[in-house]
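Because discrete structure vocabularies remain unfamiliar, we reproduce here a specimen of the format, pairing a chain with its fold in token form:
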Amino acid sequence: MNRTQLKRSSILRMALSGTDAMDQEEHGETFILRAVKIAAVVALYWFVSITMVFLNNYLLDNRDLEAPLFVTFFQCLVTVGLCWVMQLLAKLCPGVIDFPTVKFDTKTSREVLPLSVVFICMITFNNLCLMYVGVAFYTVGRSLSTVFNVLLSYIILKQTTSMHALLCCGVILGGFWLGVDQEGVAGSLSWTGVFFGVLASAFVSLNAIYTKKVMPAVDGNIWKLSYYNNINACVLFVPLILVFGELGRLGSFSRLNDPGFWGMMTLGGVFGFAIGYVTGLQIKFTSPLTHNVSGTAKACAQTVIAVVYNSSSKSMLWWTSNLMVLVGSSAYTWVKSLEMKKTPAKDPQDSAKEKLLPEKGDLGV
């Protein structure tokens, strides 16, 4: 009887906290306290991610200032500034804040540069997709990340994908096309937004590949990578802003001296920085699989909130398309996790390749 109770208790702890659960209990942390912490972390991730999407939509939907490149550039600039602030706070409060000390090195910056090019394409196309399709259709418009993961795994990494995983991708593709069709029926379809959504999905997958490649250059530290990546992005955005004429639009913007405008811009950058932290926090307290499931559920809630907020009326087929995308994405994550458990990599290099592409192309966005 005692063995049965112990087994059930272990399963519950594993479901909540993965392999670290036993270690946590050894340090005196109760099961209830652990559950409350996980719930708080997941709620924080949802709040930061959903708020960031709506905030970006607000900034990009400003018809008086059509400057998506500048908005994205400013958010990268805020991220660099916050990295400096976090380094300073880590020195002042070493026992409270843990952040790596980073001194700018041109050699490291050059090694990170290929990733930075992919990175600016990813965040730019992501914001352009949001700008044209809005929050309600955003989940469907950006739903092909998983499909591109499979394609790039085969083209670049020479990895094949199981039939079960391909069927999940088929469900996602079906949901994507049904969503596009229903947006067209409703008269709200933006082919430009769909185009940018497809490009954003492709660059999300490419970003995962290049992230893995340049990780050794920053000693495997994600915050160092973020620091160099955003510095490079700031430099690369400057000529793009000039070429696309956004500097002139910014000069004629009526709210250029409005503190409220710059406050919202700064807040967007703060949330962009925070999403990296809360994503890592959610993975730490749960697991990568649970993080993906949470991201899928968050996307569902985000869509419902957008429809209710805009007082929109959507057809049953439109909701079906969203459901197909969310179910297909969740099923793909589940199938891949089962496959990795059943067929462990033969050597460390194979293991690295397995982890090279994310299960779900989500930046928390």
